[in-house]
Amino acid sequence: MVVSILAVLAALATPSFTPLIERWRIRQAASGLESALYFARSEAIKRGGNITIRKEPSGTNGCSLASGVSNWDCGWFVFVDTNNNGTQNAGEEVLQRFATPLNIEVTRSANSADIRFDRWGRANAPFGFSLVPLNKSTSDPAARGLCMSSGGRIRITTDPADIPCAG
After folding, report:
1. What is the pLDDT of residues 104-156, one digit of tens each?
2. Helix (H) or strand (E) holding 2
3. What is the DSSP-derived secondary structure letter of residue 68?
4. 3-state secondary structure of 148
5. CA dihedral defined by 35, 36, 40, 43, rounded to 10 degrees?
6. Residue 167 CA: distances (Å) to CA of 47, 108, 115
7. What pTM was estimated for this model as a whole?
8. Which bin fits 122, alpha (ψ -120 to 50), beta or left (φ > 0)?
9. Residues 6+ apart with CB under 8 A from 50
10. Distance between CA 110 and CA 31 in Å, rounded?
11. According to the model, what pLDDT value does residue 153 have?
């Protein structure tokens, strides 16, 4: 009897946790992306340039959401790009990896699979990302935008008018 009452209460409470879980996943991904950007910038300054962040390809760790160039849904990795071509070649060291939480969409505003940093820590172009729950829009309360100027200033926004931002 007690178990059935608890089961009914749990079933009623579960839908109300969905927005909370979505917000947590989005914040986790935004924080991971922000950390990777700061890390890559720092490593570029320390190593004299040629540090790249690249999206993980679709199929990585069972993720099948990152089909397009601007879809970073499967995560990203930071590596030493010795020939500065934006692609990880044999022998190029991976410094950091991040797998995004389930059921979120991470979309880059520029149609590119990589972000490159020079020896001064500047990105190859200003850019922005939108981070939203799967199959929802940027007007969703959990949605976030992450913007970075070419000089390295990062800001995270929750204003739907600023998602996605250009930099």
Report:
1. 999 888 888 899 999 999 998 888 999 999 889 989 999 999 998 877 889 99
2. helix 2-47
3. S
4. strand
5. 60
6. 25, 11, 13
7. 0.85
8. beta
9. 44, 80, 81, 82, 83, 84, 116, 118, 119
10. 20
11. 86
Q: What are phi and psi of 26, to 5 degrees?
A: -65, -45
**Largest distance between two CA atoms of the chain:** 67
Sign of CA dihedral 148, 149, 150, 153: negative
How buried is 163 (Cβ within 10 angstroms: 0-12 exposed, 13-18 middle, 19+ buried)?
A: buried
The residue written with tokens 């030493």 in the block is 80
- Is 131 within 8 Å of 115 (Cβ atoms)? no
Contact (Cβ atoms closer than 8 angstroms) between residue 115 and residue 69: no
pLDDT in tens, 53-110: 999 887 766 677 767 788 898 899 999 999 989 889 999 999 999 988 888 999 888 8
CATH number of 2-162: 3.55.40.10
Residue in the block written with tokens 């040629």: 50
d(CA 30, CA 57): 19
* 129: its two tokens: 């990302």
